[in-house]
Amino acid sequence: MSSNRFTTLILLVVTVLPGIFQNGTASEERNTTTNNSSKNVSFTSSPNKSSTTPDIDLDDKDKLLGGLLTTGFDEASCITFHTRCGPNTRSYDRSMRKIVRSKNKGAATLCKYLICMAATFLYAILTDRVLLVKFDKDKHGLFCEPFLNSTWILPEKSPFWNEKHIETYHILLEKDGASNLKEGLPSVLFINLQHTLSEPEKYFHCDHSQDLLRKVPLMILQSDQYFVPSLFMNPFFNLEVTKMFPEKDTVFHHLGRYLFQPSNEAWELISSYYEAHLAKADERIGLQIRVFNAISTPQETVMDLVLSCTLKHKILTEVELQSSASSARKNQTTVKAVLVASLYREYGDNLRRMYRKNPTPSHEEHQKYNDNKHNMKAWIDMYLLSLSDELVTTSLSTFGYVAQGLGNLKPWLLYRLVNNETHFPLCERDFSSEPCYHVPPKHYCNGKPMKNVSSFP
């Protein structure tokens, strides 16, 4: 996923309705989830649907998304903020007319990566807002609509689709000072939560900032980070998020399973690939290789790191250069399927050649290698990687974050290579399936600096 892909996130204040998070459901007929218990299920086509619409057989328990939805909820009567206040509703039209009549006009800013969308969705829940996303044409058709009888897509006719000017939270505070902002607040406000934050946005999660933002009807939020951990720093948010997610290292897993259901088109590609290359394997291994600088880190160096890590931890099977093998090994029939996701197909090709040239120690253990083709959508690759039994990802790679989060996997992390350097250890097991918060706040809400940012939150 390239670094210049962004998604606009617009948050609209609405009337509080109980149970939005528990009662939400995908609007398409297919209901699918991904967790550790569903990795070995078969992909089938339902006889009651189009033959081109694949399905997964799930038990009733997993239809609740691992506890994300409440038991006994009535899908037919399910109602969300989007149903009452989303696009094409009277509430939405009324709010838009009111905002457009104000003195402020706004620009639809962009936010990259699915991790940002998940974090913003959680913030919308905590602040009783509707989440709208500006999808460019290249993002259409990737996901199911997550909200019943509504949409999360910002209409192209919205006054905030292509506007150029909007007041920012930073300038607002610089101009008036937070203590003086009691009246005359803008109807629309731009919030920048990118890793290159200005000082005021660093306190976005704090009470004094949230008290102010609650009075702004519409927020346009831009971020390139998974800022969920900062929400734990706010006492009110902490209480609510802890109730929703008793295990706080599974926040993205649940949010992602709810929000990011593959569309029928994407699902057909996922299921057909899975059946052809992964379904019959005894073990599915995902390798996500991200090269940050191909000039300073030659392919050979990266390949050595990948092999050293995977062979040391017995993720891949060592090849045997000698022709003889014991009869016990000959009887082994373990099948490993390896999916290699990388912008450089050479890594998958190298692995394939290595195992074709030399047999594995058992002489019976079959290895299947399928690297990422350039025309395969990143979304499909991330979803397929999330179905792995063992996952190896590159540290600091957002692509890997999505895969490990959706699958609730704790991957082996390959260290980011810089200037052809070597590392020891070669790789380490991640302690969480959560995406990293790359640049967390460095100060508490009272302004005191954090002495140990690594302990955050």
Automatic annotation (TrEMBL):
Superkingdom of the source species: Eukaryota
Biased composition (Low complexity): 32-48
InterPro entries named in the record: XG_FTase
EC number per UniProt: 2.4.1.-
One record GO biological process: cell wall biogenesis
Record localization: Golgi apparatus, Golgi stack membrane
Region Disordered, annotated ranges: 26-57
Gene3D superfamilies cross-referenced by the UniProt entry: 3.40.50.11350
Topology of the protein relative to the lipid bilayer: Single-pass type II membrane protein
GO function terms (MF aspect): galactoside 2-alpha-L-fucosyltransferase activity
A GO CC annotation given for this chain: Golgi cisterna membrane
Keywords: Cell wall biogenesis/degradation, Glycoprotein, Glycosyltransferase, Golgi apparatus, Signal, Transferase
Signal peptide (from-to): 1-26
Family designation: Belongs to the glycosyltransferase 37 family.
Function (record text): May be involved in cell wall biosynthesis.
Xref: PANTHER family: FUCOSYLTRANSFERASE, FUCOSYLTRANSFERASE 2-RELATED
Protein name according to UniProt: Fucosyltransferase
Organism of this sequence: Glycine max
